[in-house]
Design brief:
Length: 262
């Protein structure tokens, strides 16, 4: 009887360890009762405004100067506009303006322009002022070429994804990777963000809806989101070992019981 109880207990433990509560898989909960003043209709008024990205060394900028005269346009563009057919992502990266270690880019016939530590809007404003000395009519376009987010860990499709808009939040980034899988910890997500002083690592919970008021709700270009695994994953990986152990114990107890009946 004691042996049967032991087998039943082991089977119960295996079953419990293989289950995940619904709470651990749910986003945006009210984890702190004091935060319930954030009512459903007031979420937008309390959410944080995304910061503008500031250019870092080794970034790559896509800059195009468009004028009514194609010859003038070609003069200031590394890759002539409209030449060679469709402009691809690879060609944009190849013919972009890399930011050097001191934070400068170099534009033909203009010279070095400081871009590091500035937003794209600030660099565009400065370029507008500079090109007025050369051209009476010019339209300047500037974009960040290396505008990616990397999503790794316990997601359906880990990878590096191109961001096609400026205002992207952490849930949209996870959606690009197919969302977290059943092993992903919503309560322990790491974000690795580049900075002028080196990578910054932050941890936060997606279970708590206060993330919507956090500075990490909106991602930055070249952020890395690491979906940490739940503790149960190690158990699931070794599930075959546990199963074999349980079967061995059950078989042994069956043999012992058989011989005792003789």
């Amino acid at each position: 009887m004691v042996r049967c109880s032991l087998v039943f207990l082991l089977a119960t433990l295996v079953l419990l360890n293989s289950c995940v509560s619904r709470k651990k898989l749910t986003y945006l909960q009210y984890l702190d009762k004091t935060e319930k003043f954030v009512a459903e209709g007031e979420i937008g008024r309390t959410s944080v405004t995304p910061n503008a990205y500031k250019i870092l060394p080794y970034d790559n900028l896509y800059i195009r100067v468009i004028t009514p005269d194609p010859e003038w346009s070609a003069l200031f563009n590394i890759m002539p506009v409209g030449a060679g057919g469709t402009i691809t992502e690879e060609s944009v990266a190849l013919f972009g303006y890399p930011v050097d270690l001191e934070g400068y880019i170099e534009i033909p016939f203009v010279g070095k322009i400081e871009a590091g530590g500035k937003t794209l809007a600030e660099v565009k404003s400065e370029l507008d002022s500079i090109f007025r000395n050369y051209l009476t009519e010019a339209a300047i376009t500037i974009r960040l070429v290396n505008n990616y987010v990397s999503v790794i860990g316990e997601v359906s499709r880990p990878g590096r994804y191109l961001l096609t808009k400026d205002r992207v939040n952490v849930f949209e980034a996870l959606a690009l990777a197919g969302d977290m899988n059943a092993f992903g910890s919503r309560n322990n997500v790491k974000l690795i963000r580049p900075s002028p002083y080196g990578p910054v690592i932050k941890e936060f919970s997606l279970e708590d809806r206060s993330i919507m008021t956090s500075e990490f709700y909106y991602i930055m270009p070249n952020d890395i989101i690491y979906a940490m695994p739940l503790n149960r994953k190690s158990f699931e990986i070794n599930a075959s070992v546990w199963t074999m152990l349980l079967n061995t114990i059950t078989s042994a107890l069956g043999v012992i019981a058989f011989f005792r009946t003789l």
